[in-house]
Amino acid sequence: MNKVLMKGNEALAEAAVRAGCRYFFGYPITPQTELPQYLSKRMPEIGGVFLQAESEIAAINMVYGASGAGARVMTSSSSPGISLKAEGISYIAGAELPCVIVNMMRGGPGLGTIQPAQGDYFQATKGGGHGDYKLLVLAPASVQEAVDLTIQAFDLADKYRNPVMILGDGILGQMMEPVEFKLTENNELPVKEWATTGKKGRKKNIINSLYLQAEKLEQHVNRLADKFGEMEAKEQKAETYLTDDAEILLAAYGTTSRVCRKAVDMAREEGIKAGLFRPISLWPFPEYALQQVLGRVKGILTVEMSLGQMIEDVRLAVNGKVPTDFYGRVGGMVPTSRDVLEKIVAFREVL
Amino acid sequence: MKVIFEKPKSLEDVTFHYCPGCTHGIIHRLIAEVIDELEIQEKTIGVAPVGCAVLAYDYFDVDMHEAAHGRAPAVATGIKRVHPKNVVFAYQGDGDLASIGMAEVVHAAARGEKITIIFVNNAIYGMTGGQMAPTTLVGQVTNTSPTGRDVEHSGYPIRVSEMLGSLVGPGNSMKRVSVHDPKHIGQAKKAIKEAFINQIEGKGFSLVEVLSTCPTNWGKTPVEALKWLEEKMLPYYPLGDFSPKEGV
After folding, report:
1. Which residues of chain B have pLDDT under 50?
2. The domain spanning residue A108 has which CATH number?
3. So where are chain B's domains?
């Protein structure tokens, strides 16, 4: 199949369609609006439903209903909108329903800015909504990867009956790159016997997250914990670049990882043995893969478009064995490769 | 022996948790009777609220989905869009629908979403123990309006049926009924049945506002509560059909 040039948001929307998603509920917010716009045209062509909700809160609750009814369903938003969806995401995770949620992050806190940022890492990986739950969080670094991960996200959501988040940023959503939509061999969608379809020929189904007896809720939450444990064991995903002999290891995800990859090349040209560790799954954080590349590493520099969020998971993963440092830009500012290189040089001197 | 009266098939054979004299039980029964009479038990999907009726999923013998507080119309929208040939209803109280969930119900109505909402208005928050609701009457004493609802401080109670009827087009149906005596219970059942039929015929959004009692939090006996509903609520919340007759 030929590659086509597409904007990140639109490519991601088309990927959802290819994955069998036929229901989308969303609300406009920059910088992800091209995604719902694309689906408002595309869904009716394929017998699907696009519905612009009255708010992000309504949109996620429509997702909750549609997912409970057995559909492959998606919503997308950007940072402030994800905060509004947090309540619904907690319910969806609590009721063990599959769905895909896209967050094209922008600068915060508050209304912040429409420029790209990575300040929602904690929200995505540590909760966001109330209660003990986890999202599978996938962070693409290119439009092609956004397409591939979105298709996988629907399968993972169904497999674990849990929401999956695609965590990008304004740059990924807005930039155009060539993409190929790889056909998957298995287009059969899983049968969902638990869904609300009407009780014809069976006992009634209930979609619910309420367990008023403490013993019952503890059982339920522990069962969820087992599921999250399985995800931690099986779903860690990362990419490494020039890590075999690396002494300075950069850790970065998404857009920032592209800046860091260039910085690694620049450092190598100056004789510095730098490498890059790029988490693709942010939750579960790919700690095993990180531990495997620590061989000659003298220090890890985490680079984010935030005040330093993923660095906490990097530190937990290396558990004090390697010194760590951080470089970040915020407010919609994007670090340059030269900035990162300067930081690498400075970090190397203190190691 | 000929059976002349029995529990509706669409109600589970369990004991309700509702307080003595509360009219939720009557309203549940009316809905279940309507589902049986329309022979739609196997294709009905109900959405339970947050509030006293939070456990409604244990009481109706149809597929059920428990919503977050106020979000039942959005959840019902999601279900109905996936299964347009099924019958989808939501059961909501006045705090759930008219306060925290006002946006969801207004926009479900404005879209003409083909769902049915049974809106139980008892002028108070029941489950949390008797706080002021958007429907609490002027002067009514609650745990958060201890000297009575003061319009200078809290404004006037919201008439949901009239409000919704004013902003949507034909095909949508808004009716207010009461369950304070057998005659009105009969009328309430008729309205609920028509609301389900309106959905089945694909005409639009339907809401039945059912005036209901809360003896526990009103501090009254069940009999006093029925009398209070009739004497105090009916004048402010007139019964009738508030459906739009023409386009807005």
Report:
1. none
2. 3.40.50.970
3. 24-241
List, in sequence order, the alpha helices (H) in chain A.
Answer: 8-18, 34-45, 56-68, 79-94, 121-126, 143-160, 170-174, 214-234, 254-269, 287-292, 310-318, 337-350
If asked whether residues A61 and A192 sit together in one domain, one would say yes
Phi, psi of B88 (to 5 degrees): -120, 125
Which among A197, A214, A234 is the end of a domain? A234
Residues A177, A140: Cα–Cα separation, whole Å: 13
Tell me how close the Cα of B140 comes to any Cα of chain A, in angstroms.
31
User: From the list B44, B57, B107, which residue is nearest A206 (CB)?
Assistant: B57
d(CA A22, CA A24): 7
Q: Does residue A58 surpass a pLDDT of 60?
A: yes
Regarding whether A290 and A146 lie in a shared domain, the answer is: no
- A164/A203 same-domain check: yes
Q: Which fold has domain B24-241?
A: Rossmann fold (3.40.50)
Residue A11 has pLDDT above 70, yes or no: yes
Given pLDDT bands bounded at 50, 70 and 90, which one contains residue A127? confident
DSSP label at B11? B
pLDDT at A20 over 90: yes
- The reply to whether A196 touches chain B by the CB within 8 Å rule is yes
Domain that holds residue A278: 239-350
Phi, psi (degrees; rounded to nearest 5) at A37:
-60, -45
Pairing of strands B116-121, B63-66: unpaired
Regarding whether A98 and A180 lie in a shared domain, the answer is yes
Average pLDDT over residues A165-170: 97
Contacts of A309 (CB under 8 A, 6+ apart): A118, A119, A121, A122
Q: Which residue reads 């329309």 in tokens?
A: B38
pLDDT in tens, A286-337: 999 999 999 999 999 999 999 999 999 999 999 999 999 999 999 999 999 9
Q: State the CATH number of the domain containing residue A334.
A: 3.40.50.920
Co-location of A283 and A191 in the same domain: no
Q: Tell me, yes or no, whether A218 and A269 share the same domain.
A: no
Determine, for residues B65 and A207 on separate chains, whether the beta-carbon distance falls below 8 Å: yes
The stretch A246-274 carries a mean pLDDT of: 98
- Predicted local confidence at residue A162, as pLDDT: 98
Q: What is the H or E stretch that residue B41 is in?
A: none
Number of domains in chain A: 2
pLDDT at A182: 83
pLDDT in tens, B138-158: 999 999 999 999 999 999 999
With beta carbons under 8 A apart, name residues in chain A contacting B106: 54
**Residue A74: closest C-alpha in chain B:** B78
Query: Which residue shows structure tokens 């560790």?
Result: A277
End residue of a domain, out of A175, A204, A234 = A234
Q: DSSP for B91-138? A: EEEHHIIIIITHHHHHHHHHTT-S-EEEEEE-SSBTTTTSB--TTPPT
> A63 and B79: CB-CB below 8 Å?
no
Q: Are residues A229 and A243 in the same domain?
A: no
- Of all residues in chain B, the one with the smallest CA distance to A207 is B65
Residues of B in contact with A61 (CB under 8 A): 67-68, 71, 74-75, 78, 104
- pLDDT reported for residue A275: 98
